Amino acid sequence: MTALTLSTSSAATVRADAVVVGVAKGAKGVVVAPGAEAVDKAFGGKLAGVLETLGASGAEGEVTKLPAADGLKTPVVLAVGLGDAPAKGDAYDHEALRRAAGSAARALAGSKKAGFALPVEDAEAAAAVGEGALLGAYAFTAFRSNGAGNGKNGKKNDDKSAPLAEVAILGGKPRDKEFKAATERAQALAAEINRARDLINTPSNALDPKSFAAEAQAAAKEFGLKVEVLDEKALKKGGYGGLLGVGQGSEAPPRLVRIAHTHPKANKTLALVGKGITYDSGGISLKPAGHNETMKCDMSGAAAVFAAVVTAARLGLPVNVTGWLALAENMPSGSATRPGDVLTMYSGKTVEVLNTDAEGRLVLADALARASEEEPDAIVDVATLTGAMVLALGHRHFGIMANDEAFRTSIHEIAEEVGEQSWPMPMPEHLRKGMDSPVADIANMGERMGGGLVAGLFLKEFVGEGIPWAHLDIAGPAFHEGSPWGYTPKGGTGSAVRTLVRLAERTAAGDLG
């Protein structure tokens, strides 16, 4: 992973392959952001004019490279756009810094070191720059024969697209406790988001429920977590009808993983539940052509939960965080669950399966019921659950539903605070009637319109009474198929990890919401 350091060097004296400066859109054109004063001086105070001549406007994410002027120790200056300049006296938005740093780091792929001279007025701003740079430098190369890994005869390949090796935050204060703690948090958080991205990007023939569970076991050993894996025999004995029903059509049997961070000073427990469909064909209700190719990403919720629990452990948060990974592969076969079948869930409720492609809610239902038995202070589930949510909110926002309005509001505020776009969604009770079944307690499908809300209402049925619960439908932002932007790569994004980690931090501080 890319190294992150705090440096007392100035933008003029840092020895690196490039120095990154920020520019913004001012009332009269491009303005140079704080942190770049030494670079501007090297250009005779005309850096903004030079950049405008090259076509720069200061727009968010815009990258302009130019040869360094005399007096600078780096050969290249990279100017990255921060968007609109803040009002006089105001600081740059942390998310703008995060995105700019991500764009710059990606543009510097193949470089050994870059000095980031972006506005870092305080420790939180420095952390935003570090976090964005580490996320923007991400690359998934595990399956490339000529990538950044080893080539033939064990020789390392020379890959010009390899991630930027080191990010030095200029203007940082390496001896300041707040700066040091903030950047260490950024390193741990980015490492685990990138772990989640790796899992999401791994093809399904290399990641099934058993191997995902093995990843959790390995991390548990490394970071001192408690882990329990229920295999197909244990699931059958325990009556986990949802997980078994979804997984019975595949040769790769399902798993339920409990992975927990505990702290001796914790007085609150947060349960996180993740949908982990390692491949979703739709089952007997087969997906149409064109909808199968990215279904390795249907375990993004479980990846996010896994990463959040590990991050909590790495940060030593004084809160108990338990992750439940509901892992299965949804395949069509002679043994697969059929539309019309009735499953008896872990909670004892029976579910008529009207559509086997509405499988995520079935595995989550078992995990939610099991998590509720431990009576946590709150439960949050995360899932790439419905295409309806993508239609409603697009590809960059995730939806938030909850059985407690204050809790939903708190999570929305947290998501916005950490830079994850989200939107609170309602849970209209009148939609529940559409899931009435003539043969079972509930059906797994209801009205077509408002399908994302229907799914949330279904999940609510399996949450223990009196437990605050929220559901994050990350179907839109979990997997990005377009061109990279900001710190968001093509492929798995690690959506919701930052929200879950900040929620854990707030819970530890006694501010659950």
UniProtKB/TrEMBL annotation:
Binding note for cofactor: Binds 2 manganese ions per subunit.
Name listed for the protein in its UniProt record: Probable cytosol aminopeptidase
Gene name as annotated: pepA
Keyword Metal-binding tagged: yes
Family membership noted in the UniProt record: Belongs to the peptidase M17 family.
Transmembrane segments: none
Domain (Cytosol aminopeptidase) ranges: 355-362
Recorded GO MF terms: aminopeptidase activity
Organism listed in the record: Streptomyces siderophoricus
